[in-house]
Each structure stands twice: as C-alpha cells, then as structure tokens.
Amino acid sequence: MKKFALILSVVLSATVFAQETAKKMGPPEGKALAGETYGAQVSAKAEQNAITPAKLDKKLKAAKKLDQVAVKGKVTDVCEKKGCWLTVETENNEKFFVKMKDYAFFVPTALKGKEVLLEGSAETKVISVDEQKHYAEDAKKPQAEIDAITKPQEEIRFVANGIKVLK
To answer: Which of 54, 87, 93, 131 is most buried, judging by how many CB atoms fall within 10 Å of its CB?
Structure first.
C-alpha cells in the first residue's frame, strides 16, 4: 500500500509540474494597456528624448551601434511562442527587430498593433539565412515566404531593457 501511495504521489506531482511548465512556455497574458511596462522601468528622460525609427536608421548609418537610446514605434509582430521578440514598423513601412535584454522578460501578443516606447541599445547587423528562417517560423509565416529567404540581410537590431505601452 505504501508503494502504491508513493507511485500515485509521484505521478500526480509530475502531472502538476508538467502543467505548470506548459503554462510558462507561452507569452505572458495581458492586454498591453497604455502605461504598462515590460522589463525595466522606462525613464522619463527616455520618454522625452525618444526618436523615431527613421532617426534611429540615420544615426545607425553614422555609428554602427547606439547605447542608451529610446525609440517610439508601432509593434507589427510579436513572437507567438513566448513573446520573446517583436518587430516595430518604420516610417517607410519597413521593420526592425527587437529582442529583450538577456532574455529576461517577455511581452504579451496583445502588444501587436500598439505604439510603444523602447529603451535600450541598437545596432546594424547582418542576419544569417538560418536566423531569418527561424524567426519567420516563430512568426508562423507561410512556408513559401520562409523558403524565399536565401540571402543574409542587414537590418537594425534593438535590444530592449524596457518597453512601455503608449497607446
């Protein structure tokens, strides 16, 4: 009887643990309401000095990397698996990629379509074909679009310390 009780408790514990792990695998829940922040608190100074994605692009042409920069923009996509990355639209309908610093926080998928303020660092990088395909798969792009990725691409990469929802 003791063996049966032990086995039953192990099975129940494993089931509960598996369910908790499954819950943690998706992006955080939430409606991404104006004023909410993810990661580090975004400073008032960053909000006052925030630049547009177009100005970010111009600054990165002069210096390949910028630290402690704040950018305002509209979120166009969010990783549906964990909320571990997002894309922000530029004025010319292009996008730049945002990761969370040290993989320390995630954002809800409800952030898609919202205007945000990002605080962190940015740089221009060459992205490999494999990495581009990985993120396209995360975004659940059609297979034809994934297969069309055949060349490395230079793009802006932003590493966010904090993200604040503006509207």
So the answer is: 87
Write out the DSSP string of 67-97. EEEEEEEEEEEE-TTTS-EEEEE-TTS-EEE
Q: For residue 82, what are the contacts with CB-CB under 8 A and spacing of at least 6?
A: 25, 26, 27, 106
Q: In whole angstroms, what is the distance from residue 10 CA to residue 77 CA?
A: 41
What tens digit of pLDDT does each residue of 53-111 get? 889 988 988 888 999 999 999 999 999 889 999 999 877 777 889 999 999 999 999 99
Helix (H) / strand (E) element for 127: namely strand 115-127
pTM of the entire structure? 0.77
- Nearby residues of 152 by Cβ (< 8 Å), 6 or more positions away: 126, 127, 128, 129, 132
**DSSP reduced 3-state for 57:** helix
Which residue's entry shows tokens 């503006």? 166
**CA–CA gap between residue 114 and residue 76 (Å, rounded):** 8
CA distance 72 to 53: 7
What's the rounded Cα separation, in Å, for the pair 63 and 61?
A: 6
Cα separation, 46 vs 43, whole angstroms: 5
CA 142 to chain centre: 20
CB 81 within 8 A of CB 136: no
